[in-house]
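Re: zinc ion structure - here you go.
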Amino acid sequence: MTIFIPTPLRPYAGGKDAVNVSAGTVNGALDELTRNFPDLRKHLFTGEGKLRAFVNVYLNDEDVRYLPQKESTPVSPSDTLSIIPSIAGGSATHGERKNAFRCENPSSGV
Amino acid sequence: MSTLRISQAVYDAIRAHGEETYPHECCGALLGRSSGNGWRIEASARAGNTRTDSAHNRYQIAPVELVRIEREARRQGLEIAGFYHSHPDHPAQWSPTDFAEAHWLGCSYVITAVAQGKAAVTNSFLLAGTTEEDKHFQQETIDVAAVEPFAVQSESKKG
Ligand SMILES: [Zn+2]
């Protein structure tokens, strides 16, 4: 399958924008990717080996977090995996409504 | 200081987007190529703001929309070079929220202040650094019209 590498992570993937792997599951594909490009690991995973909260992984057009088998979902050679860091922000400052996943609200305002 | 080179058409399009969505924040992606010292922006892609709960001061682009935008960029031989959003009645400076939620290292974050519905100052900030721990915003020079207009494929009204 093909894994698409987002702009910020290309320097850690030999400058490539896409990498082919032969693994049979999403987890296996990410394992193979980070075995081939070990520098990617700390950008994708926390110290405990979990995907960082702001890193989204899409199997074709589906968020892997919401697939029934999550990272264990089987993949076929024609599938694509997209790694997409999240995009958010705004002029909101301290005291605005928080969302634990999307936003670790900063403590200082503008 | 790096320079964001952007065509007049794309520059106008992202500012017009902020006026259209006022008093809500607009957001979208900037597509282009690396030019050594900063990005050369050749197109923009509008995105919906999924923060309908707080759209006047927050923005968020659904990742699946980015998956599609990136696919389209790839087809055009472009990369996702950065993102833009607006600050309705708020300065064109990054906020602590913008910084905390910026994760595209090496990409440009363009902010347009929209004052009373009219696009005012537009600034660009490069997300510099190599990790989440040492990332920081660096203001960039914006060089408008340094990109050949024939390369532009934006959604803006042309002509
Ligand atoms: Zn902002």
